[in-house]
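Researcher: Next entry in the queue.
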Amino acid sequence: MPVNRKLGRTTAQRMAMLKAMTTFLLESGKIETTFTRAKEVSRIAEKMVTLGKKNTLAARRQASITVTKEDVLKKLFDEIAPRYAERNGGYTRITRIGPRRGDAAEMAVLELV
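Model: Structure for this entry, 113 residues:
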């Protein structure tokens, strides 16, 4: 059973943050965040691309729960998912970029492959 990281937030705050970060990743293709957040967002983004590859009404409705912008949802199903049609998972890449200056948190870049 996978264990969700709490990331120092209440459940509602954590879910809202992860949904927003996933939406932004799908919109821009790349985000810079802490390593632990990147690992969590990566899990969700992989699931969204897999739903996009199904391209059914049910999959679109499931994805709309996580992806908060309508235009990003359309982009997921029309552009992003077809790009990975031949690929079985591994749609994101996490690259460590060193510690953050203020609090030395391990930073990473999360991008769509």
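Model: The domain at 11-112 is CATH 3.90.1030.10 (50s Ribosomal Protein L17; Chain: A,).
Researcher: Noted, moving on.
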